[in-house]
Specification:
Helix content is 15%, strand content 28%. It contains 3 helices and 9 strands; from the N terminus they run ββαββααβββββ. The mean pLDDT is 88.
Length: 136
């Protein structure tokens, strides 16, 4: 059996979801950045998280379903503070809907603390958190 953990803060900042500006390619830019900051981590099992052509081996982005499972919705102050305690919004691996240039992210703002979507090419104020899976 396994345990899924998320980092307590962003591990990389000023990161676009996909610098192409289109979500059909997946979060290549964010995944590649995540790989660059986590590839040297030790005592973390090697997995292959292929977000289209951006591949990470030690960590991945949180999914929309995982964010929702801890209470995040589009409603104000729905996300738990431990998930929004940052000065950066952080991307999920999930493309936004209904637009092909958006992706879902967790909004850190104290007055908002919600799940929202934004333009995938935007890197200003966006970061990524590392999600790892370990054996129990």
């Amino acid at each position: 059996s396994t345990l899924t953990l998320i980092s307590s803060s962003v591990v990389a900042t000023d990161v676009a979801w996909d610098s192409s500006g289109n979500n059909i390619y997946g979060p290549r830019t964010a995944t590649q950045k995540l790989e660059s900051v986590t590839s040297s981590w030790t005592n973390v099992p090697t997995n292959t998280y292929n977000e289209k052509t951006g591949t990470a081996t030690r960590a991945r982005l949180i999914t929309e379903a995982e964010a929702r499972s801890v209470g995040c919705t589009e409603s104000t102050k729905s996300c738990p503070t431990w998930l929004t305690d940052s000065s950066y919004w952080h991307w999920t691996s999930t493309p936004g809907s209904p637009y092909d240039d958006d992706a879902w992210h967790v909004d850190f703002s104290v007055n908002r603390r919600l799940y929202h979507y934004d333009y995938v090419g935007d890197s200003h104020s966006f970061g990524v958190r590392a999600v790892i899976t370990i054996s129990k």
